[in-house]
Specification:
The protein has 141 residues and is mostly helical. 49% of the residues lie in helices and 0% in strands. The chain has a domain of 60 residues. Helix 2 packs across helix 4. It is elongated.
């Protein structure tokens, strides 16, 4: 029986040693991650030109001390390197209005001139219909 417990313990040692790979975080690792996220948020807010209070308001879950630290570090960096605020909106050209069609006065409009056609008068009558008379339909009662 002792051998059986020894084998179980031998197989469990590698599993228990790798518990960090299971996604279990220690409180110290979680605090370090939150601190790093807060600094990144603060730096991003400063680079985008947002105020510190606005950054606190938008990111309520991040620690304020970390946000302030990241904002201050980015402020020092931007001042040393003479960097301006990065615009977060792409610069777009205002939409141009589509070109308006030219409206000619009625006197400028001339009817098209008739062209000379070599076809017979019978062909002209069969293919063309006067534009002023509507087509007639047979109505069944």
């Amino acid at each position: 029986m002792k051998l059986f417990y020894g084998l179980i313990l031998l197989f469990l040692i590698p599993v228990l040693a790798g518990c960090e790979q299971l996604g279990l975080e220690t409180p110290a690792a979680q605090m370090a991650r939150d601190e790093a996220e807060g600094k990144a948020i603060g730096g991003g807010c400063r680079q985008a030109g947002r105020g510190l209070e606005d950054c606190y308001q938008v990111n309520r879950r991040a620690p304020k001390a970390a946000i302030y630290s990241g904002w201050r570090d980015m402020d020092v960096y931007m001042r040393e390197n003479n960097l301006g605020v990065a615009s977060s909106e792409p610069q777009m050209q205002p939409p141009q209005a589509p070109p308006q069609p030219k409206i000619l006065p009625q006197s400028a409009v001339q009817p098209p001139e008739p062209t000379q056609d070599n076809s017979s008068p019978a062909q002209k009558q069969s293919t063309s219909r006067p534009a002023s008379t509507p087509a007639k339909r047979a109505i069944k009662s």
